[in-house]
C-alpha cells in the first residue's frame, strides 16, 4: 500500500470542509526537493538539486571538496535532534551563508543551473506535472517554498523545461543576483535555510502573499517533518497535510502519521492529491 491515512474520520471531515469552501478559497503550499521531485532517480538517492552540483564536476575541484566538508560538518547538526532549536538555526544560517559564498567564489554561472536541470539526475515526482496542469486549470495557486542552495532560478528552470512554469505558480526561495555574463555575484538576504523556511517569509514576498492571503484553506506538501513549519505565520482555516515518506519507512511511520493527515510511501505518485483536487 502506498497511501496511508492517519485518521480517516478526521480526513473526511477536513476534505468536506475544503470541498465546501471551493477552489477559490484554496492554495497549495509545497516543498520542492523530494516532495515535488523524486527522492530516487535510477536507484540513486537524490537529496536535492544542490546535491547534483556538489556530487558532479560542474565547478572547481576546490568547490566539491569544500562543499562536502561543509556538508559533513553541518548535516550532522541538522539531523541531531538533541541540539537546541536556536543553536541549530544559527548553524544552518552559517552553513547556507558559507555555501553561497563558496558558490560565488567558485564561479557559479547560470549555465551550470541549466546543466543540472538537464542532467536527468533530478526528476519530477510521478504525476507531479499533471498536478501543475490541474491546478492551472482550476486557478489554484501553488506556492513552492524551498531553501534550495541553488535558489528559485533552478526551480523555475525545472518547470520551464517541462513547460509548466504557469502564472499560478509562485516560488519562494533564495535568489542570486547575476551579472551580464551570467555569473552569480550576490545572494539576496535573508537567506532561506532549512530551519527558517516558513510562510512568514511571505512578508518578504508581498506580491505572492497578496495572491494567497484570502485563500485560507491550504493543502501542504512536504517530505520532512520540518516542512510543516512552512505554514507558521499564515492564518489558515483548514489545513490538510500530505507527507511523502520516501525512505526509512518503518522507523518513521508513526512519527509521520502523527504529523501528516495522509502519507505517500515509497517515493510514490502524487496522484492521490490530483484525484482529491479533481473532486473540488
Ligand atoms: Mg524536501
From TrEMBL:
Gene3D superfamilies the record matches: HAD superfamily/HAD-like, Pyrimidine 5'-nucleotidase (UMPH-1), N-terminal domain
Biological process (GO), any one: nucleotide metabolic process
Lineage of the organism: Bacteria, Candidatus Gribaldobacteria
Family, per entry: Belongs to the pyrimidine 5'-nucleotidase family.
Catalytic activity annotation: a ribonucleoside 5'-phosphate + H2O = a ribonucleoside + phosphate
Keyword Flavoprotein among UniProt keywords: no
GO cellular component term, pick one: cytoplasm
Keywords for the protein's UniProt record, in alphabetical order: Hydrolase, Magnesium, Metal-binding, Nucleotide metabolism, Nucleotide-binding
GO MF annotation terms: 5'-nucleotidase activity; magnesium ion binding; nucleotide binding
Recorded coiled-coil stretches: none
PANTHER family: 5'-NUCLEOTIDASE, 7-METHYLGUANOSINE PHOSPHATE-SPECIFIC 5'-NUCLEOTIDASE
Originating organism: bacterium (Candidatus Gribaldobacteria) CG07_land_8_20_14_0_80_33_18
EC numbers, comma separated: 3.1.3.5
Superkingdom of origin organism: Bacteria
Enzyme superclass (EC): hydrolase
The protein's name in its UniProt record: 5'-nucleotidase
Amino acid at each position: 500500500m502506498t497511501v496511508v491515512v492517519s485518521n480517516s474520520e478526521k480526513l473526511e471531515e477536513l476534505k468536506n470542509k475544503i470541498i465546501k469552501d471551493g477552489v477559490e478559497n484554496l492554495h497549495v503550499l509545497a516543498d520542492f526537493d523530494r516532495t515535488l521531485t523524486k527522492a530516487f532517480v535510477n536507484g540513486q538517492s537524490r537529496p536535492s538539486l544542490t546535491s547534483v552540483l556538489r556530487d558532479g564536476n560542474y565547478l572547481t575541484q576546490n568547490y566539491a571538496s569544500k562543499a562536502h566538508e561543509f556538508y559533513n560538518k553541518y548535516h550532522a547538526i541538522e539531523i541531531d535532534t538533541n541540539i537546541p532549536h536556536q543553536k541549530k538555526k544559527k548553524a544552518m544560517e552559517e552553513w547556507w551563508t558559507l555555501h553561497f559564498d563558496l558558490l560565488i567564489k567558485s564561479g557559479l554561472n547560470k549555465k551550470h543551473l541549466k546543466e543540472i536541470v538537464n542532467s536527468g539526475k533530478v526528476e519530477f515526482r510521478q504525476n507531479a506535472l499533471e498536478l501543475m496542469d490541474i491546478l492551472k486549470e482550476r486557478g489554484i495557486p501553488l506556492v513552492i517554498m524551498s531553501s534550495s542552495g541553488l535558489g528559485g532560478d533552478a526551480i523555475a528552470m525545472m518547470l520551464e523545461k517541462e513547460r509548466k512554469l504557469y502564472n499560478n505558480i509562485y516560488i519562494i526561495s533564495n535568489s542570486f543576483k547575476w551579472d551580464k555574463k551570467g555569473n552569480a555575484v550576490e545572494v539576496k538576504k535573508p537567506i532561506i535555510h532549512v530551519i527558517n523556511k516558513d510562510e512568514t517569509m511571505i512578508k518578504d514576498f508581498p506580491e505572492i502573499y497578496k495572491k494567497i492571503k484570502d485563500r485560507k484553506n491550504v493543502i501542504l506538501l512536504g517530505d520532512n517533518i520540518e516542512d510543516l513549519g512552512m505554514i507558521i505565520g499564515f492564518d489558515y482555516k483548514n489545513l490538510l497535510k500530505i507527507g511523502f515518506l520516501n525512505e526509512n519507512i518503518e522507523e518513521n511511520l508513526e512519527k509521520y502519521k502523527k504529523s501528516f493527515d495522509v502519507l505517500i510511501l515509497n517515493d510514490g505518485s502524487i496522484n492521490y492529491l490530483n484525484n482529491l483536487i479533481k473532486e473540488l
